[in-house]
Amino acid sequence: MGDEHGEENAANRLTLISIDLPNIRAEARTLLSYQKSASTEAEVLGLISYAQTVDANLGNWANTLPPNWSFRTAGMVYEMPVDLESAEQWPGPQHVYDDVFIANIINDYRVSRIFCQSVVLGCASWLAPEGNDPRTDSSCVTARFVIQQMADEISASVPFHMSYDMQPMAKKLGQDESGK
């Protein structure tokens, strides 16, 4: 389960990096309700920059994790179902982790990145509702890519969370399928 008893473990570090996300999202909601003015535009651009800084810190956090925190691809579903909403399996890779604790923390990281990039997209579309603004165009491309990647990776983790057979630590600890 990583170094969960350490003074500054990975989960604690993630929390410290993500601690401002609720405030960033609230500030975005407030700013984006204002009429455009030069000062508000400057604040929105500043908020984009701050959200990108938090996102970069999240990326740096992920790069500091020990190798056992990485997922492995256990399988791949290649066929796209006709009705995606009622599909029995995620169409794509199926990721496994050393344990559920690690998978949960990694998904918290992914959600935090989605929140950061959502603020970037929201601010960019407020600045340029028509979608073309040289100040934010590359940021929007990056934000869309990161959001899609994080959503795909969260989806790829669902089979692990739903299948006892994919959880090596639970089996090693002798837990039954009900988690006891």
Fold and architecture overview:
- The protein is mainly α.
- 58% of the residues lie in helices and 5% in strands.
- The protein has a two-stranded antiparallel ribbon.
Summarize this structure briefly.
With 180 residues, this protein is mainly α. It is 58% helix and 5% strand.
Q: Give the rounded overall mean pLDDT.
A: 85
Total strands: the figure is 2
Q: Return the string of H and E elements.
A: HHHEEHHH
Percentage of residues in strands: 5-15%
Strand order of the largest sheet: 1-2
Task: Give me the secondary-structure topology.
Layout: H1 10-18, H2 21-31, H3 38-63, E1 72-76, E2 93-96, H4 100-127, H5 137-162, H6 168-172
Antiparallel strand pairs: 1-2
Helix pairs in contact: 1-3, 1-4, 2-3, 2-4, 3-4, 4-5
